[in-house]
């Protein structure tokens, strides 16, 4: 199993908030960057947010900018995704993931965890 464990998903009303947590261990600690991806039924998997582990630089897809915030606590080997002002179109399975190339931090990912479901209703 991939050493990335997600938690914090659930069901909320539109406009609500959720905070996802990712616990990293093993080889996942050797990455220059880590992020979150999501996949909804019938849709392509997409990168949502990425953070450089040492520099702290962050990257987001346009659709979540201003609503989602990716943070980390490297001392605890933990990654977070704070999701505010949630919309029904945010409904998806969310995965903690390792970008294939940190110079293109949202384009492709090499591995991810088991995921946590986020459902937003209206």
Structure notes:
This protein is an all-beta fold. Helices cover 0% and strands 51% of the residues. A hairpin with a 4-residue loop joins β7 and β8. It starts with a strand and ends with a strand.
Number of strands: 11
Q: Biggest sheet, open or closed, and with what strands and sense?
A: 7 strands, mixed
- Kindly state the mean pLDDT as a whole number? 96
Give the SSE string. EEEEEEEEEEE
Query: C-alpha Rg, in Å?
Result: 13 Å
Low-confidence stretches: none
Tell me what portion of residues adopts beta-strand conformation: over 45%
| Estimated structural class | mainly beta
CA(first)-CA(last) distance: 35 Å
What general outline do the C-alpha atoms trace? globular
- How many helices? The count is 0
What share of residues is helical?
under 10%
Quick rundown:
It is built from no helices and 11 strands.
How are the SSEs placed, and which strands pair?
Layout: E1 4-7, E2 10-13, E3 18-24, E4 33-39, E5 46-52, E6 58-60, E7 68-73, E8 78-83, E9 92-99, E10 109-112, E11 116-121
List keywords for this structure.
single chain; 122 residues; mainly beta; seven-stranded mixed β-sheet; 11 strands
